[in-house]
Amino acid sequence: MKRLPFVAVVLTMAGLLPFLFGACCIVFFNSGVPVPNLLMGFVFYGTVCLTFWGAVQWGLALDPSPSIITAGADRVDTMRLVLGIFPALAGWVAAYLAFAWQPVAGVAALAVAMPVLALVEREGWRRGALPTGYMGLRWIATAVMECSLIIVLVARAF
């Protein structure tokens, strides 16, 4: 089984910085930039992150030298390809809600989608369909993203 590269850990942690920065700006920063614009940027970055997590499944399914060999690998790869689309769709819904209705609605949609995707991936991990170390990194990233989303929701909804 292939191990998770260290650079993946570093890049994941670096990818969380815009979430933390965005949440801090929305909650604490009093600038000339209207908060709805900051919220839209926050939602759009969340959408990109959510879509990326779905793309991870596509990468695992399309890898010519799979890191995990299991019985029924074709079925697992097909399921990965199908399930890898849903994060992008959920991200699109969040972005659309933020744009067409209220930015806070997009934040709420992301706050629901992020942990749901992590729970689905956890089930795949329990079945041995994800590389070693992936879920640990995924839970850390999900916790940081979810805390940022909830803090923004609480700050803007009340």
What do you see in this structure?
This protein is an all-alpha fold and 158 residues long. It is built from six helices and no strands. The chain is globular, with a radius of gyration of 17 Å.
List keywords for this structure.
158 residues; 6 helices; globular
Structural class: mainly alpha
What is the rounded distance between the termini? Answer: 47 Å
Count of β-strands: 0
Sum up the overall morphology in one term.
Answer: globular
Overall pLDDT score? 85
| Rg over C-alpha atoms, rounded to the nearest angstrom | 17 Å
The largest sheet, given as strand count, sense and whether it forms a barrel, is:
none
Number of helices: 6
User: Helix amount, in percent?
Assistant: over 70%
List unreliable stretches of 5+ residues.
none
| Percentage of residues in DSSP E strands | under 5%
Q: Output the helix-strand order.
A: HHHHHH
